[in-house]
Amino acid sequence: MGSDIFEVSVNFLKMIVIFLMMVQLVPLLVWVERRGSAFIQNRLGPNRVGPLGLMQLLADAVKFLTKEEFVPAKGYRFLFYTAPVIALIPAALAFGAIPLSAPIRVEAFEWLGRNWGPYTFAFQSYEIGIGIVFVLGASSLAAYALLLAGYGSNNKYSLFGALRASAQTISYELALGLSLVGVLLLFNSFQFSEIVAQQAGPMSFQFLGKQVTVPFLPNWGFFYQPLGAVLLFTAFFAESNRLPFDLPEAEGELVAGYHTEYGGFKMNMFYIGEYGHMMVASALMTTFYFGGYTIYPWLTQESVSSWFSQFTPTQASLLTALVLHLVFMAKVLLFLWIFVWVRWTLPRFRYDQLMDLGWKTMLPWALGNTIVTAIVILIMRTNWSGQ
Amino acid sequence: MMSLGPAMFYVFAAILVFFALSVIMSPNPVHSALYLVLTMISLAGVYFHLNAQFIAGVQLIVYAGAVMVLFVMVIMLFDIKQELRAFTKGLISGALKVASAAFVAGYLIGTFKDVSVGSQSASLAGNTDITKELALMLYSKYVLAFEVLGLLLLVVAVGAVAVSRVKGGTHAKH
Questions:
Q1: Range of B53's domain?
Q2: How many domains, in total, are found in chain B?
Q3: Residue A117, number of CB atoms within 10 A of its CB
Q4: Which residues of chain B lie closer than 8 angstroms to A151, CB-CB?
Q5: I need a labelling partner for A33 at 20 to 30 A (CA). Which of A352, A368, B3, B19 fits?
């Protein structure tokens, strides 16, 4: 929370701004998705409204807000209205716990006749000690949105979609959690800020008890855990219900699955939830495997803050955080583009193929990755020369 | 840091009791299951304010995120109105209900008699995360119980696969 009124209000403001940032990224992503799909399929996509079709987003927003609102006559009214809200909350909660840039240090200053002490503001909505465990826990609640939507609509297709979605989410959650264990063992922490800090320097590890440094490579998790990274990214596709794992809303079989009966802004909230999950997934990939908000050797906290040496420490810290935030967002956008790219490239799985992939392929590989990583870390960090 | 911890603990405890009561008082089984989900989430909040942050996170992932999804899904799938009617009528189920109410009441009275206020506030005052202590305890003092439980879960998983392969389904033996 904070020790005085300034810190508390900045923290509250931060929460709101980061949430709005996440929501505002959604229309842009929709635009990227539509233009990207058109590009991949050799079409033009929306290019008439405004420059590059960007005003299409505003037109869509007006359309979402003014559409007719209805509840299925035999549906469960309360659950039907709750589901879109629940679709939004887990992604927003999870995204808020991920640091988007280096913390900002504000030196002591005088304002309104009072001395305000030095502060450190983390560039995230709130800091939680268990970091990744909380993010996984919060995002695992997203299954309820689909279940409630399916049940509340009281429609066979919706219910089928909801059942598929929940079975899929539970199955891939195991592989998702296990594929992360390797990188957690490696960095020995649950906390995002610590994991990013360890990836900021040059590649440096212990080889049979001796410290080895590779100066031209960054110390990114991907170089130690490539299998874990691939498994995690695949599991996130399943968790966010996107192609090739979009069986819950398979148009050919289920009309539109769990959101068959939804329209207008309620439908839009499901979209925000889905894109929110993609953002959480991209942010986690960046944080765990691709150095978070640093790129060694050009863009680390030290090198960026040396650009702003003529400013006061507070301004320099703020500017550094902004530059590093741009670095982070560039990486996140790269992963978001891969999400779009894969969606319009791969066909949908069959249901038994989906379950086989989750339980018989990804789970054993993730388990094996965990065990091998643990053994290798033990061997490498033991001091064999006995000194 | 503002010390909101103890106050938030009681807020979450009150919410927890309210949702737990709603689970057993709601007439619709689907609503009961959904209240149980909310109970699990508020239990995670209570754990969090007892500094058991890791247990709170695992509570969210395992119980709220996985186990209860299965419960809710199964209850939505089956039309259990008949079972419900069978359970709410009859002498035997009535006797069972009275017996369980008496059991819960006795349990509550016993808890209130044994509770000592001093020991409770000590655990609330600390502000350190107990994840590391928990891990050390699990892998040193309670390692046997922990491994036996793991083995039990493995046996259950293998048994479930064996049972489901006997008849029907996409992965049945031919």
A1: 5-130
A2: 2
A3: 12
A4: 30, 76
A5: A352
